[in-house]
Amino acid sequence: MIKKLTYIFLFIYSCSLFAQSKTDSLDLALQSAKQDTQKIKILLLIASAHGSNDPEKALIYSDKAAALCKSPGYDSTNKAYKKFTAGVYRSQGVAYYFLGDYSKALSVLQKAVAICEEINNMEGLAIAYNWIGFTHYSKGDLSKAMEAMLKSLKLQEDLGNKAGIAGATNGIANVYRAQHNLKKALEYYFITLNIRIEKNDSLHVAYTYNNIGLIYSEADSLDKSLDYHLKCMQIVEKFGDKKGMANSYGNIGEVYTKQNKYNLALTYLLKSLKLSEEISDKNGVCASYNDLGKIYYKLNDFKNAISSFSKSLFVGKEIEDKDGQKESYSGLATSYYAVGDFKNAAVNLEQFAALKDSLMNEGNGKNIEEMQTRFETEKKEKEIVLLQKDKNIRELQMSEQEANIHRQRIVMYSVIGGLVLIVVLIFFIWKSYREKKKINIGLERKNIEINVQKNLIEEKNIFITDSIDYARTIQNAILPSAEIINAHIPDSFILFLPKDIVSGDFYFIKPQGDFIFIASVDCTGHGVPGAFMSVMAFNMLENILADKKLSQPSLILDALNKMVLETLHQETENSSAKYGMDISLIAWDKKNMRLQFSGAHNSLLLISDSEEGMAELKANQTTIGMAKEKFTNHTVELQKGDMLYMFTDGYPDQKGGPQNKKFFAGEFKNILVSASKKSTTEQKEILQKIFTERKGNNEQIDDVLVIGIKV
């Protein structure tokens, strides 16, 4: 959980490192102070000296200053006095921030902003905006954080305050890093570093080393990352900066975790947790417990993993840390699944899906594969019960037929015997009655057994159907929301018609850097097996884009093919089963009107008003999970008004019409060409209507997915 260990301190809190020596002299000055303004100034300096190392004491002294602002002799209408009042609010806000009470921090910081604007105190206003930005950043509200940071930067530049500029650029870099824009983040961090080196500000140079180390860690340059973190650690230990030490230890532990050096990682993370608890840094406590949970999970110590993730989740909820809660839910889902507690695993997985704006935990792909195996086992058990029912019914029908034949034979013999053999007739009637009674008793017993089996089957059907409905809820949760679709491809349509309750097809939309990645994916099978393959494929795409930072679709498909082979153990020709997926994937650079494409079986159609008309970008004729060769990358220049179509094979393969034939690729492309001049809303309606009419009363053959995008 590296994000929460980013240094975001302003230059005004450097003095907190010398709290003991400064507060002793300031306490003496406070005792001799006569005027309220002098006392307020000294109280704020004492609060600043305690800073992040002891935010509870910082809040106590800030509150004392606030009480003086309400004393009878304090002129709240005086401009100079108002400046002190704004400083008090700002000091309270900083203390609440370090205590993890973000709501109170924002409330008092906004009061500081209002007063600074009223009295035109630009220096105080710049500092307040910076802390507002840091607070929104820690809550996960990145757009609000960036807005506040940019306001602070403009004010600091107008004031010519280089230390303030460095604080603002550092905050802006943090926001870019949280958005995974590592290039821009590194650019702003080096701006910050150069200013702080120029001012010989050793402590804040250390903070910037830390942040640069985080960037290299996310880029998987682990040796570089560790080098910067160790530089930071040496400086903060020299200054005795407890907050800085806690953060530095945590980030070093994160790097050692990535290097699979778990014992070293545990040592540093436990040191980080101890210091964070000592200084009441709830943000650091939340991060440390999450990172400890990950290590315990990797060491198969699931009991401690669940305990650590649960503690992190409790603190994350308390401080409204959405990012921390997301990681906790992910860790709890995988840990509960590892110990066989599928109910709690499903509950936490659903909570994670609701907070899914970041990465999935690296272990989820394996756990989803295991979950798929479990549900397929339940499906087979259901089929066995149904087959047993059919067998029992057939046996009963055969018994009834034999009884009827036997009765007819008795009647026939009785008629032939007639009056001549009346004694024999009586004997046969008695025999018939006895056998009939025996048969009826047998039938009653079998009917009871059938009713019992029927009730059991109905109960299991309800349970299985409820389970599949719940699986659909989880599957729908990972699909891009309407807000994401409207934000990134507003003039588009998605025709998505699952064959069963859950689907093996899915669509994927992910903005990252300068690109928007869009994919239509058709996993092996449909229904429950296809759905679990689709969840696994979605997680793999998320992880590849987040971890490898690739922008070329062919390289992404190469990585996806390798991951499927390794995850499903299909590396050898002797593998008993082959699972995979067909996919079309584009990386769209909207700014430069350029598109890259690569596909497995599924091609991309481009329909343009230019002379070329319709162009088809061919996919490789192989399947993800079985491919032996590298995938081909296509690049095209786009024009405004072009139509892009991505689709799976469900639509063209559907049978129907008078001759009960498939659409096939040619007819399907003609439909798209004829509809391409319409609005995207009308295109979706046309495709839906044609498909429904063509299918008629026939069963839907496969999941259907068609994506249309107007450039």
Kindly summarize this structure in a few lines:
The protein has about 700 residues and is α+β, with helices and mostly antiparallel strands.
Characterization of this structure:
The chain has 711 residues and is an alpha+beta fold. The chain has 24 helices and twelve strands. The strands form three sheets. The protein has a five-stranded antiparallel beta sheet, covered by helices on one side. Helix 4 packs parallel to helix 6 and helix 5 (102-119) packs antiparallel against helix 6.
Jot down its keywords:
alpha+beta, disordered N terminus, 711 residues, 9% strand, 5-stranded antiparallel sheet
Sequence-ordered SSE layout with sheet pairings:
Layout: H1 19-32, H2 36-50, H3 55-69, H4 79-99, H5 102-119, H6 122-139, H7 142-159, H8 162-178, H9 182-198, H10 202-218, H11 222-239, H12 242-258, H13 262-278, H14 282-298, H15 302-318, H16 322-338, H17 342-354, H18 364-417, H19 422-478, H20 482-488, E1 492-497, E2 505-512, E3 515-523, H21 527-548, H22 553-567, E4 581-589, E5 594-600, E6 604-607, E7 614-617, E8 634-637, E9 643-647, E10 655-656, E11 661-662, H23 664-675, H24 680-695, E12 704-710
Antiparallel strand pairs: 1-12, 2-3, 3-4, 4-5, 5-8, 6-7, 6-9, 9-12, 10-11
Helix pairs in contact: 1-2, 2-3, 2-4, 3-4, 4-5, 4-6, 5-6, 6-7, 6-8, 7-8, 8-9, 9-10, 10-11, 10-12, 11-12, 12-13, 12-14, 13-14, 14-15, 14-16, 15-16, 16-17, 17-19, 18-19, 18-21, 19-21, 21-22
Main sheet record: 5 strands, antiparallel
Average pLDDT confidence is 83
Structural class by helix and strand composition: alpha+beta
Instruction: Tell me the distance between the termini.
Output: 37 Å
